[in-house]
Design a protein that fits this description.
22 strands; alpha/beta; ABC transporter transmembrane region fold; elongated; 6-stranded mixed sheet; 11% strand; membrane; 39 helices; ATP hydrolysis activity; repeat
């Protein structure tokens, strides 16, 4: 007969599935959209942090933070929808109380008309409704399953995706007798991201085996695309690329790339040691082979002078190394495996003359007769000795031949390029001859071709000297102090603007928390109803209880909607506020903070994405905490009123359970710290791998990256397993103690009933109340994982927010210059990078840069030329002495205001995701910039013509860091950005290094016009860039060894450093 009651109740229990399933589906959809929305914000933050020097130089912090904030709006609104959906779903679970009411009514009829026993009826109702409650509790965790589904969906899709060019596919031919003859046969190609812009229409090119072939031409002509196709980063749209007469799409991709060595235009090194970076070229190489490769690339000397030698950590994005040093390590990585085909894409563009000569000789010796070399270069010194020079114009080969053969065609493209590189200055028409070991060397005759490298003969790197800083100075290098983990109260204080929603949420949560003990009290009272003898009283009591249960159902629905929406509103606003504050604070830190490994762009963005996301801590966890406190307080009060003796015993055992859960929290907190550390390291490595994907693919280093990732995660993984076992033991103990308390309650309650001190009804009421209380405490205990993670996350958040920068960009007492003259002076400056305090860059360094004049700084790679720029921009502070502008110490200025008067064009062009127009506008001093001003700046940088040739013009998307554009195109946009700023001080750090000869000449003319009347600091190896400067300063060992204009320095003759330097460059040509 009792089966009827179970069958009647079961369909209603199934109703609980409907809101859960609907919530699950909507939650998966919303979670997916939230991830997509945050992707844009995350990209903005990643670029702001990784390109922090450019951000600081152009005062773009406010713009980027505004873009970041706007990008967060979408995910915040979706978060509110998510909170509302959860409130509706969990509120719908209140139907369980209506089911209690219905089954109570039906059970009473069975007692009255079918002779069923009250105890059996109560047991069936308890079983059915307990199953329903468990079902509802299970569906409340759909949030976590949905997050896993969304994350796993993308991961699975990525894992299952079979790329069109699959380097893991071991099928394909492997040539036993590989020669290295390359043939481009009627190739048509356009980049997939810009299908409307053809690169090659009908490219035909043959590269003989064992020969050196150079590709020259204008920026954007397709030179680097040849290398990309040869490496099979892309496949041609039509035609084919053949190696040894075999189409490369028939060859095994991994084997093909293993036969090639690549040195790119922008040197890519990884955040590991110098040795490990070189080993990316050949994993099983011995230390002797590593050193030989470094010697061949002229890198061994400066590496050996580092305190840790080959174990020196390079640092993310190589911020502590000069461009020339980075490039030499990249060359060593490429030649260590003695490749059959060597690809050099502007490989020596950042080397000084001596280094370039040594490297080119080493490459010639290492590859003589057995390696095919493809060189993409603008510099004549790099390509003039090539066996074949191919001139690329508009996607076609227009001229082919040796240097001498091409020069015979006086009207040819190559001859025109050479003329542009020749020095037309009258100073160079004079017949200066010098004695060199008894012979005549004409260094400036008309026949001599331009060699763009300018550097002091001595290639010893001052950056890598073994000098040490005085102990008094080294002590001044800033070290971050450990930050105390702040209180939860402080986090809540940041939610003060949402105090109304906080009140609504807490009140609703407290009211909902009261439902459990009230329901338990009603259920306990209801048991006695079945033992009444009067049918009329049973019907009367039944009506009351049914109304109470229906009221509870409506009450649960309303309170859940209000509390979850309110807490979602609080959590989303707090998360957005924290992310904005964190990024804003990070963009006030000195550059050295970003140089440190634990503050890499990957780790910092991981903090913004995960640790700043405190919604679960404020929302789900706070609501559960308030519910628990409310429920326990009401349960204890009711218990003491109903049967104080039994209540005291039941209350006394609760702390034992609490202690168990507290122990669990401590264990989980320790696990959380290790998990966060592993996650940060993994994010850092993954971010770097993705950013440098071309280099990884080119060297087939995927497995090496996977091994590094496993190594980073292995330690925390083992520790996590061990501590998970301990946490499981503690959790099991807690659950066992709950069962023990139930046994104790039964025993002591039975004694009290037997002694006549309480009645059975009171016992049932007390029992149900404290069973629900124990469950509430158990639920609170399950949140210890989130609380542990949340505690560490909050600590990490406030560690950033509380940190005081050592270089304050918004000093309220700083001098606000309306305009600056541009008189720059270094006075007795000592400097070493904080990450390498024992390596001295400058010792008692002094130099004066005149107002409105142009000053060129020349010297060997790593001599500290770019450090001068960094100190002028105040990316770092000197350890001793001072850097002054207009007689004022830089430290006395309001830094952001000062930087408004300074423009920087760096050696490696840094563009942001967005359109070309948006990137140029980063140089704008105000928002009110006309289109005509943008166009004029682009024309000045020789960028307008190529921009208008693009299908979308100034609205063309540059891609991540300008990936859609060539190196020269990116550099011209960077120059246009600087021109738009109209600065008083112009800093050019190899500003034209990535331009072809024609573009360089036009940009140089434009820069010279821009430089008129402005203080300009020019760092360059190219003679054409600095020969017209008012002053040229030659650096050696952190000192200015010569200073003067071009003519006066040449007049010193062979004994002069500058004269000897010019001689060296002419010999190299």
């Amino acid at each position: 007969m009792l089966w009827r009651l179970a069958i009647v109740g079961f369909p209603f229990i199934v109703l609980l599935l409907i809101p859960g399933l609907m919530y699950g589906r909507s939650l998966i959809s919303i979670t997916r959209k939230i991830r997509e929305e945050y992707k844009e914000a995350g990209s903005i933050a990643e670029q702001a942090i990784s390109l922090v020097r450019t951000v600081y130089a152009f005062g773009s912090e406010t713009k980027l933070i505004a873009k970041f904030s706007a990008a967060l709006e979408g995910s915040m609104k979706l978060g509110l929808r998510q909170g509302l959906a959860k409130g509706l779903a969990l509120g719908s679970n209140g139907i369980i109380y209506a089911i209690w009411g219905f089954m109570n009514w039906y059970g009473s009829r069975m007692v009255m008309y079918h002779g069923a026993k009250g105890g059996n009826i109560f047991a069936v109702i308890m079983c059915v409704t307990s199953g329903g409650i468990s079902l509802g509790r299970g569906f409340s965790n759909l949030k976590y399953f949905s997050e896993v589904v969304v994350a796993g969906e993308k991961i699975t899709k990525m894992i299952k995706r079979v790329p069109g060019i699959d380097s893991d596919n071991m099928e394909g031919q492997v040539l036993n007798n590989f020669k290295g003859e390359v043939h481009f046969n009627h190739v048509k190609f356009m980049y997939p991201s810009r299908p409307e812009t053809p690169i090659f229409e009908d490219l035909c090119l043959r590269i003989p085996s064992g020969k050196t072939v150079a590709l020259v031409g204008g920026n954007g002509s397709g030179k680097s695309t040849v290398i990309s196709l040869l490496q099979r980063f892309y496949d041609p749209v039509a035609g084919e690329v053949l190696i040894d007469d075999v189409p490369i799409n028939k060859l095994q991709v991994k084997w093909l790339r293993s036969q090639m060595g690549l040195v790119g235009q922008e040197p890519v090194l990884f955040a590991t040691s110098i040795k490990q970076n070189i080993l990316f070229g050949k994993e099983d190489a011995s230390m002797d082979e590593v050193m030989e490769a470094a010697k061949a690339s002229n890198a061994h000397t400066f590496i050996s002078q580092f305190p840790h030698g080959y174990k020196t950590q390079v640092g993310e994005r190589r911020v502590q190394m000069s461009g020339g040093q980075k490039q030499r390590i990249a060359i060593a990585r490429a030649i260590i495996k003695l490749p059959k085909i060597l690809l050099l894409d502007e490989a020596t563009s950042t080397l000084d003359s001596e280094s370039e000569r040594v490297v080119l000789e080493a490459l010639d010796n290492a590859s003589a007769g057995r390696t095919t070399i493809v060189i993409v270069a603008h510099r004549l010194s790099t390509i003039r000795n090539a066996d074949v020079i191919c001139v690329v114009h508009n996607g076609c080969i227009v001229e082919t031949g040796s240097h001498e053969e091409l020069m015979e065609n006086l009207d040819g493209h190559y001859t025109s390029l050479v003329r542009l590189q020749q020095m037309e200055n009258e100073e160079y028409d004079v017949n200066i001859s010098v004695r060199v070991q008894g012979g005549q060397l004409s260094i400036l005759s008309k026949d001599l071709k331009y060699s763009p490298k300018l550097s002091f003969v001595d290639s010893r790197s001052n950056l890598a000297t073994n000098s040490t800083i005085d102990s008094s100075l080294s002590g001044s290098i800033h070290k971050d102090k450990k930050t105390r983990v702040p209180s939860f109260k402080r986090l809540m204080a940041m939610n003060r603007p949402e105090w109304k929603h906080a009140m609504c949420g807490c009140l609703s949560a407290a009211l909902y928390g009261a439902v459990q003990p009230l329901n338990a009290y009603v259920v306990g009272s209801m048991v006695s109803m079945y033992f009444l003898t009067s049918h009329e009283k049973i019907r009367e009591k039944t009506r009351i209880y049914v109304l109470v249960f229906v009221g509870l159902a409506l009450f649960v629905f309303l309170t859940n909607i209000v509390q979850h929406y309110s807490f979602a509103y609080m959590g989303e606003n707090l998360t957005k506020r924290i992310r904005e504050k964190m990024l804003t604070k990070m963009l006030t830190f000195e550059v050295n903070w970003f140089d440190e490994g634990q503050n890499s762009s990957g780790a910092a963005c991981s903090r913004l994405a995960k640790e700043a996301n405190v919604r679960s801590l404020i929302g789900e966890r706070v609501s559960l905490l308030v519910q628990t406190i409310s429920g326990v307080a009401i349960a204890c009060t009711l218990g003491l009123v109903i049967a104080w003796r039994l209540a005291i015993v039941m209350i006394a055992v609760q702390p034992v359970v609490v202690v168990c859960f507290y122990t669990q929290r401590i264990l989980l907190k320790s696990m959380s710290k290790k998990a966060i550390k592993a996650q940060d390291e993994s994010c850092k490595l993954a971010a770097e791998a993705v950013s440098n994907i071309r280099t990884i693919i080119a060297f087939s280093s995927q497995e090496r990256i996977f091994k590094l990732l496993n190594r980073v995660q292995e330690g925390p993984r083992r520790e996590s397993v061990r501590q998970s076992l301990l946490a499981g033991i503690v959790l099991g103990t807690s659950r066992s103690l709950l069962a023990c308390t139930t046994v104790l309650n039964y025993w002591y309650g039975g004694r009290l009933i037997a002694d006549g001190k309480i009645v059975a009804k009171a016992f049932f009421e007390m029992f149900m109340i404290f069973v629900s209380t124990g469950r509430a405490i158990a639920d609170a205990g399950t949140m210890t994982t989130d609380l542990a993670k949340g505690s560490d996350a909050v600590g990490s958040v406030f560690a950033v927010l509380d940190r005081c920068t050592t270089i304050e960009p918004e000093d309220p007492n700083g001098y606000l210059p309306e305009k600056i003259k541009g008189i720059i002076s270094f006075v007795n400056v000592d400097f070493a990078y904080p990450t390498r305090p024992n390596v001295v860059i400058f010792k008692d360094f002094s130099i004066e840069i005149e107002e409105g004049k142009s000053t060129a700084i020349v010297g060997p790679s790593g001599s500290g030329k770019s450090t001068i720029i960094s100190l002028i921009e105040r990316f770092y502070d000197p350890l001793k002495g001072s850097v002054r502008i207009d007689g004022r110490d830089l430290k006395s200025y309001h830094l952001r205001s000062l930087r408004q008067h300074i423009a920087l064009v760096s050696q490696e062009p840094a563009l942001f995701t967005g359109t070309i127009r948006e990137n140029i506008l980063y140089g704008a001093a105000s928002e009110n910039i006309d289109e005509s001003e943008i166009i004029e700046a682009a024309k000045a940088a020789n960028a307008h013509e190529f921009i208008t040739s693009l299908s979308n013009g100034y609205d063309t998307n540059c891609g991540d860091r300008g990936v859609q554009l060539s190196g020269g195109q990116k550099q011209r946009i960077a120059i246009a950005r600087a021109v738009l700023k109209n600065p008083s001080v112009l800093l050019l750090d190899e500003a034209t290094s990535a331009l072809d000869s024609q573009s360089e000449r036009m940009v140089q003319d434009a820069l010279e016009r821009v430089m008129v009347g402005r203080t300009s600091v020019v760092i360059s190896h190219r003679l054409s860039t600095i020969q017209n400067c008012d002053t040229i300063a030659v650096l050696d060992n952190g000192k200015v060894v010569e200073c003067g204009d071009h003519s006066s320095l040449l007049a010193k003759g062979p004994t002069g450093a500058y004269f000897s330097l010019v001689s060296l460059q002419r010999n190299l040509c």
